[in-house]
Specification:
Chain lengths: ~900, ~110
């Protein structure tokens, strides 16, 4: 344990050593004096013979030390002292870095929750999702459900999966009895679904074989959330009976709270009953299943992809009528969910915006550190003169940078805890986003540390390399030959300034362009009038209103009741609300009857009551709207939008033409005559592009689930109680969901984009502040460094005006170079955004000009202020300075 | 980093000379360096300071031990003394050195080869 003893006796050891050396020197001096030398000479001789006292002490101490480690601690102590001595500098630098890191870590926490978190199933990498692809897909995400006939065929014929389950994610059910009637999402799954996922219920049991057979399927498993909310986490609910769509079901289990697949959110699961025998065209057209499968041992995801692609091709060849244009693919569950979650482009943009903020922060800190390194030139020279090696000095500067990075990283992490929570609550706008739950996890911690380390290297290396080679004698002599900074250093500073201008221009331009484009898209004309509209959704329970006539009778009766309510101008029902992602259908035009299903054009589809156009405020452009006489007994009619008309009837002769809208139900698929053309409405509020839309009269295609839309004279919310009463007067067990004004509806839907905007704005604001402050600091410092040069010029008779010109010219040159580089980088951004967000119309040349002028202005101001100060200095003071 | 004694002597030479000198009698640092210089007839250029790191190394290896005392000139001094371990180490080092020296001498001897 000698080393331990040494550790504790060390200060005594060092004391002994100092004393000993002191005695040594004194003894020598005395001896020399005794020999006849003067005391002064003797002292000098003694030191000369002895050598470098400090180095000797250091070398002697080193014997006892774990040298590398202790040097490091010394550096840390010294660095901490330097930071404490300059609190202003420290606070600015640490905060700058913390902001940069927090911005990145927060976005990354989202990314981590979205991409890196494994789905909550057992062995997630070997759980595959099989889905269909359509070569004519309207949407960007081409991951469609598949039909039951394909499920049965593929389950039998694949050679890669040990087991397959099917899931119908689209069902919803009216949950009645015990509490208010409520519409809940209810996923239907085959009995082996939970077994294939490898997840067991927290309470009760999963489905057993045979429960997905007709007759024994009256069982239900609750999600943890629903169990908590509606049943107060009562364990006795397992075994109890609930009414779904008017039929009693037994609750057999409750899933654990962690079982959330954010692409497949649901409040409950019921058995999916499939009839094997169904091979009709209608059954093939009814694509509503996602398939889940376990890979066989030894089979890779790639092999599975190939096998499934082959099966998809075989289906397309065997059933060209219904399957042409369709294919099959499979992906591991996690990859599948990443692709279905439409946050990719936003992520890319957020991450890069935050990354740029961090880069700007690093450039700022590097600038500040460089500035400080320059003012510490003398300190470095002295250290070099008394024997510090170059490596040792670089190590010290890097340690200082590391210390800053550590503080910045720690503060950044603290900020991230807070901002991740803020982001999480901001994400509450829809269920899917809510399920993401960004949090500071291991990935985020790792990412933060990596960023801090990288940042330290980025901004620590520049001053370290610069300080590594001080010209000792020149600096110490304070030679007037070095009136201005050396060539290399001033070039370095110029590069730094120009680089920072370029970076700032690039980022600010990008951020401004994006925000403007997003804003334009959100605020562009939706094609209808969202003011004063009250909306609600009704889904008639199948058991009670299964028949078409009762469905249309119910809604007609309801509309009659609503129209006479005081304050109501008009009322209508529609299958989809405008600006609310509508369903789409394929269709055929007369003369193209034989186009195979997969190759047919598609359009967004609305089934509406006669007063819909007036109620929504959608303008009729040509022809007529639907009337009460367009009923089941009248000739089939349809309305199309202007985009539809332009695209498919370029000669302007749409009215009177025939269209056949495909439907799973062959009976209602009939030729319809186009009787009118209406304005296009936005389908997605983030889109500024309008799509083809087609309308059918409600009376000719009744449905059980409709949105009710009421136009109020004013204050639509006030009509909500009247709406509820009207519905309940017809059926007291009828659930009503999403009662809100169209404005609220829109707000909910655009909150996602609002969040994108907000994050962009925060990043841009941070970037703006950091860029302006950093740029100003850097430029004003480098001009300040020229005080001495300016003093000499004035002393030599230069006119102050000329000097100001000189300094400003130098500054402008750098600013122009920086702006030019930044603009060259920023120019392709418009197109990049445009291709990432197809709906975006990215415009705004003025943004480029504004950002350039702003950054140029900052540079000029940062040149002017210190230059003016230097000019008004007495030249003698400037010369004597230092 | 190069230390001073390494520049002038081979590694371990200074330590060996210190041990040898201390074998004759315990000495403090200043006396030790004067003694070495004198014995070598000032042929060896030793920076006085270089003695101290070497002494620290010997202390650490417990080849010498040190004690504070008062010198004959009435000065507070730290006297170094050879330990048993140090004596053994010295013997070993000297025999190694002699072998090395013999080799070098043979190579350098005139006439042969």
């Amino acid at each position: 344990m000698t080393w331990l003893k040494q550790l504790f006796s060390r200060s005594r050891l060092y004391g002994d050593l100092s004393e000993e050396i002191q005695e040594h020197l004194e003894e020598k001096v005395e001896e020399l004096v005794a020999g006849g030398m003067s005391r002064k000479e003797a002292a000098y001789a003694a030191h000369r013979e002895f050598g470098n006292v400090m180095l000797t002490k250091e070398d002697s101490r080193k014997v006892w030390r774990w040298a590398a480690m202790e040097d490091f601690f010394t550096d840390v102590r010294f660095g901490a002292r330097m930071l404490r001595k300059n609190p202003g500098f420290t606070v600015i630098v640490v905060f700058t870095l913390a902001l940069g890191i927090a911005a990145n870590a927060t976005i990354f926490s989202f990314l981590s929750a979205w991409i890196l978190k494994k789905p909550a199933v057992s062995d997630p990498d070997r759980l595959m999702v099989v889905y269909g692809t359509n070569s004519n897909e309207l949407r960007e995400i081409n991951q469609n459900p598949v039909s039951a006939p394909n499920f049965f065929t593929w389950e039998k014929e694949n050679r890669v999966f040990s087991q397959m389950a099917a899931m119908d994610p689209y069902e919803a059910a009216s949950l009645t009895g015990q509490g208010e009637p409520e519409r809940v999402s209810a996923m239907r799954v085959t009995a082996n679904y939970f077994a294939i996922l490898g997840v067991s219920p927290a309470l009760g049991r999963a489905f057993t074989a045979g429960e997905d057979q007709s007759g024994s399927d009256r069982v239900v498993i609750l999600s943890h959330k629903l169990w908590e909310r509606r049943y107060g986490s009562d364990p006795k609910v397992v075994g109890a009976t609930v009414r779904l769509n008017g039929e009693s079901h037994t609750v057999i289990g409750v899933m654990p709270s962690g079982f959330i697949l954010h692409s497949f959110l649901t409040q409950m699961w019921t058995p999916l009953v499939l009839q094997d025998a169904q091979q009709s065209a209608a059954a093939r057209e009814n694509r509503n299943l996602y398939l889940f499968a376990r890979l066989k041992t030894g089979i890779s995801a790639k092999q599975a992809r190939a096998d499934i692609a082959t099966l998809g091709r075989l289906a397309a060849e065997a059933f060209p009528d219904t399957e042409k244009g369709w294919g099959a693919e499979t992906l591991p569950l996690q990859d599948f969910m990443i692709r279905t979650y439409p946050a990719g482009p936003a992520m890319v943009i957020w991450m890069s915006a935050a990354g740029f903020v961090l880069l700007i922060a690093c450039a700022n800190i590097a600038g500040l550190l460089l500035a400080r390194a320059a003012s510490r030139g003398k300190e470095m020279a002295i250290r070099a003169a008394i024997g510090a090696s170059r490596g040792r000095m670089i190590r010290q500067l890097l340690t200082e940078a590391g210390l800053i990075a550590l503080l910045g990283g720690a503060l950044g992490l603290a900020l991230t805890f807070w901002s991740a929570r803020a982001l999480q609550s901001a994400l509450a706008f829809d269920e899917q986003s809510q399920a993401l739950q960004p949090a500071v996890d291991g990935h985020v911690l790792f990412c933060t540390s990596a960023m801090s380390l990288l940042a330290a290297l980025l901004f620590g290396l520049a001053p370290a390399l610069q300080a590594g080679t001080p010209n000792v004698s020149a600096i110490l002599k304070n030679d007037s030959a070095t009136v201005s900074a050396g060539r290399g250093r001033s070039r370095f500073r110029s590069v730094l300034v120009a680089g920072e201008v370029a970076l700032a221009v690039f980022l600010l331009t990008g951020a401004a362009l994006f925000i403007k484009a997003a804003n334009d898209a959100i605020h562009s004309d939706p094609g209808f009038d969202p003011q004063n509209l009250l909306t609600a959704r009704l889904s008639l329970a199948n058991a009670r209103c299964g028949k078409a006539t009762t469905q249309s009778a119910f809604f007609q009766e309801l509309l009659e009741k609503l129209k006479v309510l005081p304050g109501v101008e008009s009322a209508a029902v529609t299958s989809n609300l405008p600006a609310w992602d509508a369903g789409d259908v394929s269709f055929r035009l007369k003369g193209q009857e034989n186009t195979p299903a997969g190759a047919r054009p598609r359009a967004f589809h609305f089934v509406v009551s006669p007063d819909y156009l007036g109620t929504a405020g959608i303008a009729l452009i040509a022809g007529r709207g639907f009337t009460e006489s367009d009923n089941a007994n009248a000739p089939a009619v349809t309305l199309i939008c202007e985009v539809f008309a332009r695209r498919y009837f370029p000669n302007g002769d749409a009215i009177g033409k025939q269209v056949l809208i495909d439907s799973g139900d062959a009976k209602s698929a009939q030729w319809r005559q186009i009787v009118g053309i209406v304005r296009s409405v936005k389908i997605n509020p983030l889109d500024s592009v309008t799509h083809a839309e087609i309308y059918e009269p409600f009376l000719q295609r009744p449905a059980s689930s409709m949105a009710v839309m009421v136009r109020a004279k004013s204050n639509p919310e006030a009509l909500a109680p009247g709406l509820r009463e009207a519905v309940w007067a017809l059926d007291k067990d009828q659930p009503i969901t999403s009662v809100m004004s169209m404005q609220d509806q829109k707000t909910i839907e655009t909150t996602g984009s609002g969040l994108i905007e907000a994050i962009q704005a925060i990043c841009a604001g941070m970037a703006l502040i950091l860029a302006v402050v950093g740029l100003y600091g850097l430029v004003s410092f480098s001009v300040g460094q020229r005080s001495r040069e300016i003093g000499i010029r004035i002393a030599l008779g230069a006119e102050r005006k000329n000097i100001l010109q000189l300094v400003l010219r130098d500054g402008m040159k750098l600013a122009l170079i920086g702006v030019a580089i930044g603009l060259v980088g920023a120019f392709p951004l418009s197109r990049a955004f445009g291709s990432l967000f197809p709906g975006f119309h990215v415009a705004g040349g003025w943004i480029f000009v504004l950002v350039s002028v702003l950054m140029g202005g900052v540079v000029v101001l940062a040149c002017y202020v210190p230059a003016r100060r230097a000019m008004h200095l007495d030249p003698m003071v400037a010369l004597r300075y230092e | 980093m190069k230390t001073r004694e390494q520049r002038d002597l081979f590694p371990g030479a200074l330590e060996m000379m210190i041990l040898k000198t201390l074998k004759r009698q315990p000495l403090h640092g200043y006396a030790l360096v004067q003694q070495i210089k004198r014995t070598s007839n000032d042929l060896l250029q030793i920076e006085e300071g270089s003695l101290y790191p070497a002494l620290q190394r010997l202390l650490r290896e417990e080849l010498v031990k040190a004690e504070w005392g008062i010198s004959s000139t009435n000065r507070r001094v730290r006297t170094y003394k050879l330990t048993a371990k140090g004596a053994k180490h010295l013997e070993h080092e000297v025999s190694r050195f002699e072998k090395m020296l013999e080799g070098i001498t043979r190579v350098l001897a005139p006439g042969e080869l």
